[in-house]
Amino acid sequence: MSDIIQTTGKKLTAPKIGVVSLGCPKALVDSERIMTQLRSEGYQFSDKHDGADVVIVNTCGFLDSAKEESLAAIGKAMKDNGKVIVTGCMGAEPEQILSKYPNIMAVTGPHQYEDVVGAVHDVVPPVHDPFLDLVPPEGLKLTPRHYSYLKISEGCNNRCSFCIIPKLRGDLVSRPIHHVMFEAEKLVNAGVKELLVISQDTSAYGLDTKYAEYPWRGTRRKTKFLDLCEALGELGVWIRLHYVYPYPHVDAAIELMAQGKILPYLDIPFQHAAPSVLKAMKRPAHQEKTLERIQNWRKICPDLTVRSSFIVGFPGETEDDFEYLLEWMQEAGIDRAGCFKYEPVQGADSNALDNHVPEELKQERWERFMEIQRQVSAERQEAKIGRTLEVIIDDVDDEGGADGRSHADAPEIDGAVLIRDAHGVKQGDIIKVKIEDADDYDLYGVPVQA
Ligand code: SF4
C-alpha cells in the first residue's frame, strides 16, 4: 500500500490499483465502472505497475492479435508487479490465461464487475475512513450489533405449488463465495458474534454458478454449500444455518456441527411430512428419507436442534395425512416449529388443486398441531435442566437480569434463556449458563463462574 489520505488529523493508507484497459469502447466502459466502484470504496489508482497493490488487466479476445496483446499485457503486469487480476473477453476462457500464468490472483469474464471488485477486496481490502465514509464498513444494519443476517443468494429454482417467490424474485442467483466471505469478515470485524445464513434455499447455494471457485485468504473455495459452511466456520463466531433442505449433501455439514465449527442448528422448512401432500406441494427433497436422515444426524451430532415450519390444511390433506404429520413430528423430535394454516396466495398453482380444506377444519388441525408441538418442545426443554450451555446475551437489565439465547435458539423465532445474577454481563457476551428450570419454550439459569 502506498498512498496516504490526510483526514482530520488522522492518516490512513489507501490501497492503490493499477488498471490496464485493452480492446473496444465497451471494454473501456467496463473498466470505468470497475474503477468508479473501487474509487467509491476509497481505492486510489497507480499509473505504474510497481506502485500498485494489485493490477487489473481488462483483456480483449476479439482477434488472435488482440489475444496476443492481452497475454503480453498480463505478462508485463506479472513481471512488474506479480499480483494480477484478469477480466474482460479473454476471461471467458480462463484456461488460456491460467495455462500461461498459473499464479494469476483471479480471472473473471466480461461484465462481471462484482467479481472483479470482489477479487480486489480479496487481495487488498478497502480501508475504511471513519471521517470521510458515510457508511460504516459493515454497512447499515437493523439488527443489534452482536448478530447479523448474511444473505447468500436471491431467488429460487424450486417451484413449490403454494409459493410465488420464484415468480417475484426469479431463479436462484448465488453470490460468489468470496463476496459472501468478505461481507462476513467485515461484520465479524465490526463486532458481530453470530451470523445467520439466509436465502430461499441455502442447500442449493452455488448450483447456478456451477459451483464457481474463487480465491479466498490464500485458499480456493467453491461457491458451494459445504465450502461456505467450512469457510464461515473458520471465522470464530456462531454460524447458524436457515432454510436448508434435507438433501444428502447436507450430511457433511452435520460433521462440522459435531466438530463445533458451526452451530448444531438447522432450520428446515419441511412444510409437511405426508408423501401425498409433499408431492402436491412440489417440495424440494420430498423424496428423501428425511426421518432416517434426521435420526442419523442426531447420532453424529446429538445436540442438533431442528427448527421447521409447517402448513396444515393444504388442499387435499386428509385426516390420515394430518395424523401422519403429527406422528412424524414427534418421531423426528422437531425442537421448534412454526405452523401456518394454508392460505391461497394469488398466483399460486395450489389454488387450482381440488379438495380445499374448510376453514374450521384448518383451525382445528392447527390447534392440534400446536398442542403436540408444545409437548415435544417442553420435553426437549426439560432435558436441558442441569446442563451448562453457552449463551449469547441479547439484553441486560439494571437488576442483574439478562436475556440470551443458546445454540438452540435463533433470534426472533425461538425461545430465550433468562438469566439471574448476571451482574457485569454485556450485550453480545457469550457466557456459560447453568440451566435450573425450563418451561415450554424458555430456559432459566445462572452464569457459571469461569
Ligand atoms: S417455498 Fe421456498 S423453496 Fe419453495 S419455491 Fe418458494 S422460495 Fe422456493
Describe this entry's structure for a reader.
- It is a single chain.
- By secondary structure, the protein is α/β, with parallel strands linked by helices.
- The protein folds into 3 domains: 3-123, Methylthiotransferase, N-terminal domain (Rossmann fold, 3-Layer(aba) Sandwich); 147-382, pyruvate-formate lyase- activating enzyme (Alpha-Beta Horseshoe), CATH 3.80.30.20; 388-447, OB fold (Dihydrolipoamide Acetyltransferase, E2P).
- The protein is 32% helix and 23% strand.
- The chain has 12 helices and 22 strands.
- Strands 4-3-5-6-7 form a 5-stranded parallel sheet, sandwiched between helices. A 5-stranded mixed beta barrel has the order 18-19-20-22-21.
- Strand 3 (16-21), helix 1 (25-40) and strand 4 (44-46) form a beta-alpha-beta unit.
- Helix 1 packs across helix 4 and helix 11 (319-332) packs parallel to helix 12 (359-382).
- The longest helix is centred in the C-terminal third of the chain and has 24 residues, at 359-382.
- The two termini are 43 Å apart.
- The structure holds iron/sulfur cluster (SF4).
- Iron/sulfur cluster (SF4) binds next to helix 5.
